[in-house]
C-alpha cells in the first residue's frame, strides 16, 4: 500500500516578476498543497510618492506627473487633474474641448480593456488572444501618437481645454478603427469569451457577494459584475456624457467570468460612445485663454472630482492655498481597496493556478497604491 504524504505548508511570493501580476507588486501566499490559506499583498517596489511630488511643484509642473499614476490608463488622471484645477479656478472649457476629452477618455478606456484582455487570456495560456489584443491596442496607440505625440503618456488633457487640435483626417481614422474593432469583437467572442477553457477556469472562481461589494466600496467591473448598475458617467455626469446614449452593462454571477462579460460589453459601449462623439464633434476653440503658467495661482479652496476609468470610479482631492503650488493632493483609485481587502479575501481557498486569473479580473494598478 502506497502511503500518501500530508501536503506541506509552504510560503511563496507570486511576483513582482510574474507576468500574471498586474504591475510592480507581490502577493505572499501561504499554501497547503496548492490551496491558498492566506494571501498578503506587498507593495513598495515603486516608492513614487506622486501626491507629495505634486504638492512640491507648480500646477504646470504637476501636470506632467499625474499621467504616471496608472501607466496602462493615464488619461483619467489628466482629466481629473484638469477638472480639479478648473473647479478651483472657476474655469469653463469650450464645447469642442469637452467632446475631444470624451473622445480621448473613451479611446483610453478601449486601450485599457484590450490590455486587460491580453493579460487575462495570457493568465490561462491563451497566448494567441494576448498577441492579437496587444496588436489591436497598438492601433489605438497609433491614434494617440498622432494626436498627442506620445503613445503611452499623452499629457494632452490640460487645464483650460486640450493641448492641441485634432489633425486633419483624424476623425475619419477614428471611424475606420471603430469599424475594425467591432468586427474584431466577434472574433474575440469566439476565441476568448466563449472559449471552453476560459469558461472552465473563470466560472465560479473569485465570486464576490453583492452586499459585500456595496459595503466595502468596490467599483467598476467588480461592482457591475454583481448586478449593480453604477457608473460615474451616468450617476454624476461630467463633460458631455449626459448628452450621449449608452448603457451600463451588468452581470449577476459576481465571478471572474461575469467581470469578463462586463468588460466585453463595455468595449462595445465605448465604441458606441465614440461613434456619437465623432458624428457630433463641434467646431470652435480647444483652449480658453489661461493666465501665465508661472504666475498661475489656485485660490484658498478645495474640491473633489471624479471620472469613470476603465477600472471604475477614479477621484482626485485638490486644495489650493493662494500660491502657485497645490497645497494638498490625494488620489483615490480602485487599486487600494481591490488590491488589499478584496484580493486577499478572494484568494483564500483558491488554487495557486487561479491567482493571476483573479488578480487580472479586479483591475489593479499598483502606482495608485504607492501614490
**Which residues form runs of ≥5 with pLDDT under 50?**
none
Q: What can be said about the biggest beta sheet?
A: 3 strands, antiparallel
Taken as a percent bin, the fraction of beta residues is: 5-15%
Coarse structural class: alpha+beta
| Average pLDDT number | 92
Task: Output the CATH topology.
Answer: Cytochrome-c3 Hydrogenase, chain B
The H/E string reads EEEHHHHHEEHHHHHHEEEHHH
Strand arrangement across the biggest beta sheet: 1-2-3
- By CATH, the superfamily comes out as Cytochrome-c3 Hydrogenase, chain B
Number of helices: 14
CATH architecture: Orthogonal Bundle
Shape: globular
Annotation, overall tally of beta strands: 8
Helix content: 40-55%
N-end to C-end Cα span: 58 Å
Radius of gyration: 21 Å
What is the CATH first-level class name? Mainly Alpha
Q: How many structural units, i.e. domains? A: 1
Q: Explain this structure to me?
A:
This protein has 371 residues and is an alpha+beta fold. The protein has one domain (9-369): Cytochrome-c3 Hydrogenase, chain B. The protein contains 14 helices and eight strands. The strands form three sheets. It has a three-stranded antiparallel sheet. The chain has a three-stranded antiparallel sheet with strand order 6-7-8. β7 and β8 (326-332) form a beta hairpin. α4 packs antiparallel against α11 (256-280). The protein is globular and about 80 Å long. The protein starts with 8 loop residues before the first strand and ends with a helix. The mean pLDDT is 92.
